[in-house]
Amino acid sequence: MSHPAPLSSAERRAISYANTLHQLVSHILTKREGADRVLANYFREHKKHGSKDRKLIRETLFGLFRWWGWLKNLPATDGADAHKEPGFSASFSSGLGQAQSPGWFTQLSLVAAIENHPWQDIQSGWLSLANLSQLEIPAFGDTPESLNHICAALTQQFAYEFAPSNLLPDWAWEHIKLPDTERLAFIDALCRRPPLWTRAQGTSREKVIKELQADDISAIPSAVFDDAIELASQSINLDAVTAYTSGKLEVQDLASQAIGEVAAPGARERWWDACAGAGGKSLQLFSLMQKKGGVGELIASDIRPKALEELLRRAEKAGFAPIHISPWRSDKLPVKSDYFDGVLVDAPCSCTGTWRRNPDMRWIDDASAILDKPALQLDILRRASAAVRSGGLLVYATCSLARAENEAVVEAFLTSNEDFELDATTHPFSGEISAMLTLWPQQANADGMFAARLKRK
């Protein structure tokens, strides 16, 4: 009687990682809970994992969601020649293979191969457990066309048609509209790891970069904004970075920074950040006014007290006083009406523009994430507009790429608010002149956002 060959050390470790990742992905997809939170809770409860374990688990987990549009439809596989039948045995309808099935090990192997993971022993273990000798996949190169090359190779190997458009859920294409010629570049951008964008504040970018270099951190100045800095590594412990702990450096994505640049507050103006959250854009507005000669008045509001507490902490660290807070406690306007030179409404939204940073959200959300927001967005915009003085500026922004949350909300607002009109500005990434700007991830290696400038007559 023959006995199965004993597992190698690499295979045993590969199974351990596979079980952990299956547990995490199952939780995220069934509970529809964000991957960042699930992963943070898991690491808090499982102190056994060292830095290498944590990195491998994190990189593979987010890689799985980047490519989930392909993985969830991967045909059944019990070996290199068993790629005939679509839809291998799944633990539930999401397309997740069973924890120790060849299908799950194939899914893991595919992610590791596409993203060129450095853990070769674990990748080899997953391949062996999937009964595959290897996966013939071309490198995920620097150009969007490399996605087509990967699709062709996978289609040939698995006898199933792979397409770049499948990397987003079908419902997304009904709401995210862009020319066919831009689709491949857009999908390509969403499938790449996002950079870590930061912003110098209270001092020059050159001084901050010198401090970063002293901490042995590679920093790349942005060609778009004179205070934006890209950090080459995402695995930086910011609490050990002098420039960050002293308040001279803030983490803020480049597309988010573009909103402050579109607002373009002048020296000593009065501004209200109506949906401030933890204050990233409030701090930027303060910094921009400071650079132009001085801050007039800046008030930040939100319905969440904890977020405003974090804003004040960040402002104190940066030495940005005074930023005043005025929480939304009811439907009543929390600030003076007809008073501000500028009002920023960074409205709550579906966050489709952050799908690059949060690829799990593509698969745990559905169309309701977009469709249930416009009424709230329009209501907030109408209420906040009352605070704009005659001749003042109203800036509406979201981190959504859906027209229903963006242009449609602005158009509905203008229909019933004839004392406002569109105010054109220059798109910071494309250079086009428009009053309503969509910032696409493929334009500047950043998140996606929308901004509109409106002026009170």
Helix/strand structural class: alpha/beta
Report the CATH topology name of the largest domain: Rossmann fold
Q: Report the sheet-strand fraction.
A: 5-15%
What is the averaged pLDDT score? 91
Low-confidence stretches: 77-93
- Shape field: globular
CATH class of the largest domain: Alpha Beta
Share of helical residues: 40-55%
Domains, number? 3
How many β-strands, per DSSP?
A: 14
- Ends apart, CA distance between termini: 89 Å
CATH architecture of the largest domain: 3-Layer(aba) Sandwich
The H-level CATH homologous superfamily of the largest domain, spelled out, is Vaccinia Virus protein VP39
Largest sheet: 8 strands, mixed
Rg over C-alpha atoms, rounded to the nearest angstrom: 24 Å
Query: How many helix segments?
Result: 18
